[in-house]
Amino acid sequence: MEAGARSARAGHLRQATGADHRSVARAVRRAGTSFYWAMRMMDRDRRRALFAIYTFCRAVDDIADEPGARADKERALAAWR
């Protein structure tokens, strides 16, 4: 699906901004893994896409791994839909 396209489930998806791209790049770098440096070798569009995917995966993995009630985790994960 193209950025900015409509999704029945997600509603309108807005085009990512430069600030969005910088934010996810910082998140990947702060994670302290080798993914950041490997992804830096990709062309700009692929790198931006991979940074966004990695940041999403990190966020939902952190929700699942952190202590807390199952219902709270399910609500937090559902917010990503």
Q: What form results from the Cα inertia axes?
A: globular
Low-confidence stretches: 1-7
How many individual β-strands?
Answer: 2
Residues in β-strands, percent: under 5%
Element-by-element helix/strand order? EEHHHH
Please indicate the count of domains. Answer: 1
From the alpha carbons, calculate the radius of gyration and give it in angstroms.
14 Å
Q: State the strand order across the main sheet.
A: 1-2
Strand count, sense and barrel status of the largest sheet are:
2 strands, antiparallel
Textual characterization of the structure:
The protein has 81 residues and is mostly helical. It has one domain. 60% of the residues lie in helices and 5% in strands. It contains four helices and two strands, in the order ββαααα. It has a two-stranded antiparallel ribbon with strand order 1-2. A hairpin with a 3-residue loop joins strand 1 (6-7) and strand 2. Helix 1 crosses helix 3. The chain is globular, with a radius of gyration of 14 Å. The protein starts with 5 loop residues before the first strand and ends with a helix. Residues 1-7 have low confidence and may be disordered.
